[in-house]
Write a structure and sequence with these properties.
The chain is an alpha/beta fold and about 250 residues long. The chain is built from eleven helices and eight strands. The chain has one domain: Aldolase class I (TIM Barrel, Alpha-Beta Barrel). The chain is about 50% helix and about 15% strand. Helix 9 links the parallel strand 7 and strand 8.
Amino acid sequence: MAKNQLRLGVNIDHVATVRNARGGAYPDPVRAAKLAEEAGADGITAHLREDRRHITDADIDALMAALSVPLNFEMAATEEMQRIALRHRPHAVCIVPEKREERTTEGGLDVAREENRLAHFIAPLRDAGCRVSIFIAADRRQIDAAHRIGAEVIELHTGAYCDYHAEGRFEDRDRELEALLEMSAYAHALGLEVHAGHGLTFDTVQPVAAFPEVKELNIGHFLIGEAIFCGLTPAVQEMRRLMDAARG
């Protein structure tokens, strides 16, 4: 990988969503992960939710055994998930907020409110060799808190930016994009590695991919949806092409 190349993490959660709709073995998230890897993904993301609505424990076992690129293990800050992460010791652990009633992750983690608990929670993960990432809004207070608790990485939530674009609210979209740009620079200046993700599509990825401080984008739902029409390999390849073009 070129020094300036932006990494692409492909989230394969919703392959498991389709599989679980029928309760069988297909489509297989591990097969999707391997296809994404062959198509140019630099890593695979999987979120093991408390309710196991898509990815299962067996999927994490299989991904750890099959992947030759890093696994980014998304999880809530619970004792159960900490035990699972410590057993597997994936390359990266991303701490995300989680509510049973939500359809998808609705926003960033409130690190500032739970600073002491989260500092103690992530310490064993760091000691085990996992890179700890915190999924947060583009908010200076949350970035400062993530830095104080010892996170190495933050992932900025791009969902509001993407929603405003889809709704045609372009002034709001541009304001959110400016906040993402400003906070990625601020986090980088603190020594944090900056990632971004949530809701990114072919239409919205390039402005975020152009941020010089952002090192990785994690994209899933759109790519799995696009794969219905064109296949997963072309979808990942096109996202990779757009990211590379934006980075120049």
